[in-house]
Request: fold
Amino acid sequence: MAVLSVDGIRLAFDGVVAVDGVSFEVGESELFAIIGPNGAGKTSIFNVLSGVYRPQQGSVEFNGENLLGLRPHRIASRGMSRTFQNIELFSHLTVVDNLMLGRHNHMKYGALSAFLLLGRARDEELKNRSAVEDVIDFLELEQWRRFPVGLLPYGVQKRVELGRALAMEPRLLLLDEPVAGMNVEETEDMARYILDVREELGIPMIMVEHDMGLVMDLADRVMVMDFGRPIRTGTPAEVQADPDVIRAYLGEQHRSVAS
Ligand SMILES: Nc1ncnc2c1ncn2[C@@H]1O[C@H](COP(=O)(O)OP(=O)(O)OP(=O)(O)O)[C@@H](O)[C@H]1O
Reply:
């Protein structure tokens, strides 16, 4: 069954068509990748899914519910969680505190009650702390937990951002260029964590990424975009063999990936 169904999305800004005729589905536990050259419309799709932009046409259903018109925080509270191309963490706060902020959707009680540890607020605080500890274990962040995020190596900061998204206990995870700017070792580490998210946590994901090796290794299916339109959706093998894709986008990269 599809977790997410996107049908016929069109998004334009004052005559500039960012996305047109985009339809796709993401299944349970599926890792769905969106690729395409700069300006192809990938980030715009994420912005439509997370409620930042409202498309002029089309529909988005998440677990059977229409999302169009909902504000970003409402969509997040339904279980759609996102990481960003440029890290969006509080650099002066520690790893633990940044992860706790990822729990805000699960917080009903105010900071004062939590501080005073009153009744249900205390139970909630304990539950949130325990969820954050699970994320720290899962992403092997123990040694960094008390460091301000801004002092950490870049690859670890990206991992903390994934952690913040996981702390929300998402039902769908949107990863916007999770390995951008990483060296080979950091990329391999991140690839392993992404696979663990799918295999151990069973969370479906949509990944926008320029690293073709990573996409072709990890994704179950890939949608290739060009000038705002999808030109092919299929398995990595199908996409890499498609003459339109090779012509429009992969070119030399395809041959080096395939060889
Ligand atoms: N807020 C906006 N106002 C006007 N035009 C926009 C806006 N956001 C995106 N666009 C345009 O929409 C098109 C698609 O942009 P988008 O950022 O979605 O592409 P992308 O595939 O994510 O690119 P990249 O790989 O560089 O991140 C581009 O022509 C871009 O200039």
